[in-house]
Amino acid sequence: MTATATAPHTEAAETPPAEKAMRRKRRGITMTIVTTLGALLLAVVFLMPLGYGAATALKDKDGVSDPNAAVLPVSALTFEYEGEVHDVYAVPMPDGTTRDLALIEPGRESSTFVDPEDPGAGPIEWDGRWRTLEPVTGLNPQWGNFEEAWNTISFLRLTGWTLMYALVSMALTVVSSAVVAYGFARFRFPGRGLLFGLLMATILLPPAVTLVPKYAVFLQMGWVGTYLPLIVPQLFANAFNVFLLRQYFLTIPRELEEAARIDGAGPIRTFLRVIIPQSVPALTAVSLFHFFYAWNDFFEPLLYLAGNREIVPIGVGLSYFSGVYNSEPHLILAASLLALALPVAIFLAAQRVFVQGIVVTGVDK
Amino acid sequence: MSGFTDAVLTARRRKGGRPTRPAGPMQRREARWGYAFISPWIIGFLLFWLVPIGASLVFSTLDFQLTDPDATSFVGTSNWERALSDPDTWTALAATFRFTVLFLPLSIVVALGLALLLNSKHLKFTGFFRLLFYAPSMIPLVAGVLIWQQVLNPQTGWVNRLIGLTGVDATGTDGIRWFDNPILVLFAFSFIGLWGIGNAMMVNLAGLQGIPTELYEAAEIDGAGWWRRLRSVTLPLLSPIMFYNLVIGSVAILQYFVVPWVLFGATGRPGGASRFLLVHFYQQAFVFGDMGYGAALAWLIFILVAVFTAVLFGTSRYWVHYGTERS
Questions:
Q1: Domain boundaries B77-319, corresponding CATH code
Q2: Can you tell me the distance from the alpha carbon of A234 to that of A107, in angstroms, rounded to the nearest whole number?
Q3: What sections of the protein cross the membrane (chain A) (predicted)?
Q4: pLDDT class for B4, splitting at 50, 70, 90?
Q5: Which of A36, A144, B265, B292 has its CA 20 to 30 A from that of B217?
Q6: How many Å apart are CA A91 and CA A77, to the nearest integer?
Q7: Domain range for residue A26?
Q8: Rounded to an integer, what distance in angstroms lies between the CA atom of residue A178 and that of residue B133?
Q9: Å between B226 CA and nearest CA of chain A
Q10: Which of A139, A156, A173 is the last residue of a domain?
Q11: What is the ipTM of this complex?
């Protein structure tokens, strides 16, 4: 090495290759730890509201509204003794220990306590002013909040209607979209490019521009206040689903269809016997996409079901509930957690299919 | 790359370019079957798109009140004049513009950042992290909004209590009131919006995984650092996907509704910041029942979306990179 070389160069040149490799490996390990810990921190921040929601949904009403309340659902402990509820205090005993005892008979200079751990041992007399004692607090999750939220929002009814809407519209849109997608994927006809462009354009068109006349017509037909305006249009395919399925159909080798055709199968039979069985992964992905889309659907149910609060899906039901119960955030949070449990559980169970669906097609709904 | 933009661009390019083949009986039969298969969509397109869009234009020239449909009369362009002079329309345009300027770049950068993180060779437990970052997208939007509403509660929410730990008086009366300030509320909307970033993130990740590693190796041999590789390899090759995310994202913001509606209804609080275009439209058409005026507002949204996407597609040739030559 010449003297003009900069310090790091000199150092690098003098380092034996084995040590260099070691150093690189050590740097790689450091990078891995830093990156992974950073990602973990980011995920914690990202998911923090869920932790808050869970902790707060389990609080009692006082604990929710107190700005200085503990983070976890903590409240003063009580103990039921002979049919009455008594507060629990930290009592310093003559022998120097402190015991958590329930105050059953307060007096000025001496009081009677009972040990919640061992009420059978009978009352304990204690000399001193009970007002100087510290109340004992402890983790006290209010699981009843979930029950109360469940009943107040009629969770089963909301879920039932949401499931009905999601499943029926899913079945209709998957069937109709598969038929249309096959038409675009396999048949040549004049205007195909233009029509497909129009189909894709409807993804970007704002539905608002169609709502006023649609609402007026549905109102005339007596459909407003029912699920018909939400479900019937699913019979006529949906651009996203057509696009996803067409992409998949294009990857199916034509030879399979040729073989069916030679056996005398017409296009309908080929579609049912060859294409559909080959496309189960894509059909599953599209079904899942639509299921979650329908579960989340808010605007149109709000609009078309406005006059019929008994049958709204869960998103609209939750928004009504939060408007009425805004002074009881613990119930709102409990209801929200109930509402997200089912879709998140389905997602976790089916996430492989779901993620593949997004990745394979490079598009999302 | 992004199949969506491919399809739109290919459809556009194909228009009129294809030589017409002589139509024999085989071709005619194939065409008939093709039309038969796509007929559900054609009927749906006419019934639920084309005719209603045209009818909306007609409705926008009528004084049509839902409460008194029999008194409907032709009023010419007065609904349109009213739409353009209504202060609420301008409030809605301003709210939409401000939120677009804040959230669109933010969401695109965060979606790309998370995808880069998940694609990093230094990250362990990739599948686990992918799940964690995607999961909030699966939470029903209304439930997510209600959770965030409590997390951002000025006195009891964790966000302000965390900020309070740094010594800032966040929870007091002069504290950070996320839902009472027209600028802060845009950040509240953004936090909620970032919970839905999962799809954009996954599409980006799929794009990143499709970039050949040889390109990075070649860049590294040329001495390109991390930033240079991102700028000269990753971003150009990812631009079709970024374009897709940009189009979908901006069209969604122009139709932003659920979050402001669940939080503020049609009140427009705070200071008009939640009166987005669709909130304004919904209030006029379906709360007040002024369907003629609503139709004019809906057409205004339609024109805005059309102009916005036309500009995006028009400028895409200057920055969206399609690497391979296509026949």
A1: 1.10.3720.10
A2: 73
A3: 29-52, 163-182, 194-215, 227-249, 270-295, 331-350
A4: low
A5: A36
A6: 14
A7: 7-55
A8: 31
A9: 14
A10: A139
A11: 0.86
